Amino acid sequence: MSDIIQLLPDHVANQIAAGEVVQRPASVVKELLENAIDAKASHIKLIIKEAGKTLIQVIDDGMGMSVTDARLSFERHATSKIKNAEDLFQLNTKGFRGEALASIAAIAHVELKTKQEKDEVGTEIRIEGSEVVSQEVCVTPKGTSISVKNLFYNIPARRNFLKSNAVELRHIIDEFHRVAMVHADIKFDMYHNGSEVFSLPITNYRQRIVHIFGAKTNEKLVPVEEETDLVRITGFVCKPEFAKRTRGEQFFFVNNRFIKSAYLNHGVNSAFEGLLKEKTHPSYFIYLTVDPKSIDINIHPTKTEIKFDDEHALYAMLRSTIKHSLGQFNVAPILDFNRDASMDTPYEYKSKMIKTPTIEVDRSFNPFKDDPKENTSSSSKSYTSFKKEPTGGWENLYAGLETPETSSKSLENDFTSIEFESSEVTGSLFNADQEAELEHHITYQLRRKYIVTTIKSGMVIIHQNRAHYRVLYEEVLRNITMASAVSQQLLFPLKLSFSKQEMQILKEVQEHLENTGFVFGEITDTDVSISGIPTATTESEVSVLLEKLINDIEQEVPDSGFSLTDLLVRSISGSIAVKTGIALPKEQQQYIVNSLFACTEPTITPDNKPTFITLTVDDIDKKF
Question: How far is CA 200 from CA 29, 74, 191, 228, 257, in A?
């Protein structure tokens, strides 16, 4: 039998390695930004075109590379970070495997310009599909500029798997956040299609978070700080009242590296136990500093998962530190009711020296000596004596009252003329006209979840949330397509704050939202004013509705306008549909039943879940 095992060519091996390192344009952005940080840059520019599919360029003012290093950097497993296996447990840099540039060069057109400060001229290298096209001397400023063009040009299947530009851009922004948030001592600029997206100056961690997520974030942050022999914990958690329905703003950093850890996330959630509303998640920005020997970074190609030596102790410390911070800043309730808050020691006093208090006494004070400044006439004016006028006898107290007979008659006349104010119920989910038409149907609510009604062949059990979801879906979709929605005006406009990316999404769907009944006032980069809302929505639901809508669009942004409209309608109708556990009056039960069977597709929800089941008489007879 002939030999069948053979060595792969280098360009094929590089493309296979690229499949692990480079999954989408955001992966390239992450690797290039980390290389710029390892080069000790103080200013990094990220330039993107068409969500990274056409161009990804990173320019830094770091130390640059020599001619030999520039050429060698594109070879596989060529790195300056480690020299032997023991160095893997003393890592203080971002990259160390030496795979990133080789993998990127295998699937794109790469152009590198670099120069060290001591050199007069720099080096320019062009590579296409792992092949060096040219290497020349060039004039370039100190540092490195690397451009990655036409990503996946030689792997059409991988390029076809990329999502729309909006989705890929959001993944790039996420990676940009993860790198920029932990390096507040570096200035970052980001541009997309020629327009500025971020300009982050050198600052501290708190201001870096505020610059990224908006000015309103500052009032939400509660500082967290603790230092032990095992770990140093710093960062911020958001107050419980600002918890979100999504997990977007949750960041862990270990030794200046972004990680994902479901175990540590559970520790943070347990610290907020009893403080959060149902189905909400806390926002946090936690920076952990541990001994590099106690962690293993090299267990995942993207280095976002880390193995800890003592994960249980870290969990307990993180949980107790956050609980202490919430109590220290009077965010969480405490059981000591006699505690005086003024006796608490603020965090900033922890490292201050104790000083002996000094008492100043006026030794010339004589309590028996009159104050010459005191003016008896003026002091007497400060007190007013009230004197009760005599009534002139107790009989006069009842003067002017009628006899019991006349008083009872007058009271009867008075009460007959009184008109009582009618209590009008507002904000109903259902129209009064439709409620009046449904009196003849018999319905029954089961467990505040199902509506049971009868038909000729048996009975119908309707899921109240799914049925109302379907009814509202068709109603909102009709309003958007016909642009004929009714809006209820607010007495005081709502002021809501979002990040720049979230506001960009809102602006994209603003016209669709206006067709559903929203009326927008002033819109800035981070704030929006709402003066009118759809009639089926309450004022308290608006922020939750918009937050869920933005999250839905971020997770599955469609390419076509029709799909975007459908996603918008599904998000709105799902948010305002009557929830399980709410008791419904007979009229509202009947309205849901009639409206459901008037729909064009009453059997399923927009998510393809059944809205009702039927039990015929034969089905019931079989049970007996």
Answer: 17, 30, 12, 32, 19
